[in-house]
Amino acid sequence: MTEIRFQADADLRQAIVTGTVRREPRLDFRSANEAGLEGIKDLEVLALASRDNRVLVTHDRKTIPIEFGQFITVQTSSRVLILAQNLPIGEAIDAIILIWEASTAEE
Its domain of life (predicted)? Predict the structure, then answer.
């Protein structure tokens, strides 16, 4: 079983990435900066996350659901996790760690 790996979208608050990795250092959560996502179009971000077998974590409720729907009609994806912008950072961290602990990449 393979552990889930995460990719932060450029709009995701960095404090969520930092806090998640701080609380669970074994969790693989690549920041948008590390992946060079600033200014990249949504379809390219989805393709990158899919290619690297990572779950994209985003706050983007406006365009990502539409782009993701189009993306999965032609390519496979390792999924998207959309977090509300107003979700407290601690709750966002808890949710990501829970998903990581309770799931595998194959699920």
Answer: Bacteria
